[in-house]
Amino acid sequence: MDRRFLIACIAVAFALPTACVVAENSKPTPVLKGVTGAGRFERTKNGAVEAASDSAGPVGVQPRRLSAGVVTQCRPLQGGQKARAVLYSYLLDAQFSCGIGTGSTVELQPDPTTARGKCCDAAGTNCTLNISDVVGVTGSTSQDKEVVTLKLDDVPTNLKGQLHFKCVTKGTESEYCIVTVDMPAPFEENQCSFDRNVKLTPIEGPNTETAFDCRGPVTSVPTDAQVFTGDDCTGNPSKLKDLIPGATLEKESNIFRLRVAALPTTAQNLCFKCIYRDPRTNAPAPTATCKVTVAVAGTSKTTTASTTSAAEGITVKSFAAVAFAFFSSAALHS
Fold first, then answer.
1. What is the pTM of this model?
2. Which residues form the signal peptide (predicted)?
């Protein structure tokens, strides 16, 4: 066998493992751009809620009431006027006032004492409609002094439905005010409530932040000393620092921000609890829990990948050794 050919073959055999290992290790490392999607919470400014206009959000967007205890004023005027209220998601109620007091000449239609489950049409000409036919669940009105409270028995199924009530001066149909109660806008994906859970975008890299919203009449909120694991938030709670060293949970008003500085060795599925008073009439218990879960990747997957790459390099080197032995044998027998 030509000695120059043999030397060339041996050189190629030794070059192969180096080239393969370099190619394997030169794969680009993914760069974390930050948390996006369902778990991303953008900071907003919470303004005061006016009694006459308690809607929130841009024009053209379905409103959401930001706080409880908002009373919309609807006083009868000649030729009629209109007012709007928004159902409060966390209590399933809305409140308004017709200015009805002792000796008042104003009355509410439908009558909250004899037609509690009724409402009017938009024009106020028919006040015998069933609340359940409009929003999909039963409800009723009650009056305490000047304040009228609309209360639904469950979460409305028709969020586009509007309930109308008429404040009218007795003895005349030309002096009135129609109050329209809008159903609330759907929740954002990271917002808790008594009838829903939240699943945040997984955390897959260090220096990552995510957030969730526990606004409303909560009876218990998450802390960094009461962190559960698993989707069901069962078992004994742990401290956040014990599950993910260096991680923090900070409360800003009703927003909770989870910051992970470094990934834990073992992947974790964290679970936080926001406990609400359940306003549903036939609720199975006085309180209901919103479970907030977020998966946090572990560094062990990186170790596994490195081990796999090393094994592939060893395999290539073994192939080179076999090739060297083959060509050496051929040289001896030539």
1. 0.70
2. 1-23
Domain termination site, one of 129, 164, 182: 182
Write the CA distances from 44 to 65, 78, 155, 206, 253, integer angstroms: 15, 40, 26, 25, 11
Question: What gap in Å lies between CA 266 and CA 298, rounded to an integer?
Answer: 5
Domain residues for 174? 71-182
Alpha carbons 285 and 279: distance in angstroms, whole number: 10
In a domain, 62, yes or no: no
What is the total count of domains within the chain? Answer: 3
Is residue 54 domain-resident?
no
Q: What are phi and psi of 142, to 5 degrees?
A: -145, 160
> How far apart, in whole angstroms, are the C-alpha atoms of residue 299 and residue 306?
11
Q: Could you list the mean pLDDT of each consecutive 10-residue stretch along the chain, which spans 334 residues?
A: 47 42 36 32 29 34 58 94 96 94 84 95 97 98 93 97 96 93 96 98 97 96 97 95 97 96 97 98 95 96 45 44 46 46
DSSP state, residue 195: T
State the SS3 of 280-309. Answer: CCCCCCCEEEEEEEEEECCCHHHHHHHHHH
Radius of gyration for the alpha carbons in the chain, expressed in angstroms and rounded: 33
Query: Peptide bond before 110: cis, by omega within 30 degrees of 0?
Result: yes
Question: Which CATH number belongs to the domain containing residue 138 in this structure?
Answer: 2.60.40.1320
Query: Is 201:40 a contact under the CB 8 Å cutoff?
Result: yes
Task: Indicate whether 203 and 261 sit together in one domain.
Answer: yes
Read off the DSSP letter of residue 5.
H
| Residue written as token pair 């549903």 | 280
User: Residue 44: what pLDDT?
Assistant: 29
**How high is the pLDDT of residue 100?**
82
What is the number of other CB atoms lying within 10 angstroms of the CB of residue 152?
Answer: 25
- Let me know if residue 98 belongs to a domain: yes
Of 149, 148, 191, residue with least CA distance to 44: 191
